[in-house]
Amino acid sequence: MEQTFTSGEKWRQFFVIFTPVVVSQLMLFSMALIDTMMSGHYSNEALAGTAIGNSLWGPFNASLSGLLMAVTPIISQLIGRGEGHDIKRTVSNGLYITIGLAALLITLNFLFVPSILRMMGLDPAVASIARHFLNGICFGVPAFFFYSVLRAFIDSLGLTRVTMMITLITVPVNIFLNYLLIFGNWGFPELGGVGSGYATGITYWIVLLVTIILIQSQKRLRDYHIFSGFQRFSLEKMKEIIKLGVPNGLTILFEVSIFSAVTVFMGRFGTDTIAAHQSAISVPTLLYAFPLSIAAALTILVGFETGAKRLLDAKKYRHIGMVSAIAIGVVNGVLLLLFRDQIALLFTNDPKLADLITHFLIYAVLFQFADALLSPVLGALRGYKDVTVTSIVAFISYWIIGLPLGLLLSYTTLGPFGFWIGLSAGLFIAAFILSIRVRFTEKRLA
Predict the structure, then answer these.
(1) 364-378: average pLDDT
(2) Which of 142, 356, 389, 405 could covalently link to 276 via disulfide, CB atoms 3.0 to 4.6 Å apart?
(3) Mean pLDDT of the region 50-71
(4) Which parts of the chain are coiled coil (predicted)?
(5) Cβ-based neighbours of 93, under 8 Å, separated by 6 or more
(6) Which long-range contacts (CB under 8 A, 24 or more apart) does 422-427 make?
(7) What is the predicted pLDDT for the residue at 439?
(8) How far apart are CA 281 and CA 285, in angstroms?
């Protein structure tokens, strides 16, 4: 990254950072989509079980990764201030935190997931698939969290193209392993939907290994000596990461978990509706990679400019992010409307299920517009290291307003589609409140 002076230079630097990030996010997000699609071609039960498993894994995956994302603005501001010597300490302590997080998540999975699945009142076959799918995911959890910190380190340096190169391997590897483990090809056990969980877990380890090799082989990364010598625990650095990461993680948890809560409430509409809901929601989840990547790029660039005390430049980058997100949101929304029938057929050969998926996708357009307004604001606030209020706003918007509204609408003629309207309302409300907050923050720092 470097200082920019004209609008053209800023747009160019923004897209240099953003483009590889969005490719990386699409690769990572598509793993859940691929699991769902390939399981759906095995059986409806495998589709529902995999979808339920992903809906339970998603909130923890996103929120704990969000906590580790605190490494990004910390390093970006260190670079802006010319304090690159402190980067190794930040990364090392981030890696130490992942050990505790991985152990906690694996323990929670084995202690509480069976009870949660029983409470959902699922078909026993679907519940069994979901449970063992999550066991497979847990196999790769330590690798995924380690990778998350190392990716934050690489991205913070503006080397997002490197992480793009790494994540480009995820989709072909995941598809190949799904081919082996779901359908039992080439002499491998036929595990059905459970196989997709183990395929994902193995893929995480492969991605981590490739990341470590690249860090050690590229001079720009090797010069920070991330893996050379033991770095002491730093209570001060851990506090900095946790202080920034916990509110960020909670914000993501409140947003992502609301979708899992809706899946639980969908149980009363039957297995087909659950399968259609989860299949359909995986599409806007994949498209969410675009606004999320804009947010990530803004966190890097706003953090860099804030560290260098160029606050006007930081604000200009936020405006670039907002314009880009709205433009992409409109395009994605139109594409969803035009190709919803074709998209539905990617998940199932069952005409009834495909019709349900098609109807859900109509309401998914609302998510595109809401995320386009919300994500850039969140990214800028992270860059400014102002995240305390965001978790409070997220909880109120999603859980106090969005979910009750969706539940109420689900008892009208809208049925299960009412939940999607409630969720969209929560996202729009959060976007409005946090847009006010980011302007307040910029005035305070100026």
Answers:
(1) 92
(2) 356
(3) 82
(4) none
(5) 231, 233, 234, 237, 238, 241
(6) 423/258, 423/259, 423/262, 423/367, 423/398, 424/363, 424/366, 424/367, 424/370, 425/401, 426/258, 426/397, 426/398, 426/401, 426/402, 427/255, 427/367, 427/370, 427/371, 427/374, 427/397, 427/398, 427/402
(7) 94
(8) 6
Q: Helix 124-156 vs helix 193-217: angle between axes, to the nearest 10 degrees?
A: 10
Percent of the chain having pLDDT more than 70?
Answer: 100
**Tokens at residue 403, please?**
């979910």
Give the orientation angle of helix 44-68 with respect to helix 193-217, to 10 degrees. 30
Specify if 2 maps to a domain.
no
Q: Which amino acid is at 378?
A: L
The string of pLDDT tens digits covering residues 299-328 is: 989 988 998 889 999 999 999 999 999 999
With 0-12 / 13-18 / 19 or more C-beta atoms within 10 angstroms meaning exposed / middle / buried, residue 392 is middle
Q: Give the domain range for residue 66.
A: 7-445
Assess if residue 261 is contained within a domain: yes
**Given a cut of 90, is residue 294 above it in pLDDT?**
yes
Residue type, 258: I
pLDDT tens sequence across 207-237:
999 999 999 988 888 888 888 877 788 888 8
- Residue entry with tokens 């978990």: 257
Q: Are 197 and 137 in contact (CB under 8 A)?
A: yes
Give me the number of domains the chain comprises.
1
What are the structure tokens assigned to 211, written together?
């990341």
Q: Is 1 within a domain?
A: no
In whole angstroms, what is the distance from residue 51 CA to residue 75 CA? 36
* 161 pLDDT above the threshold of 80: yes
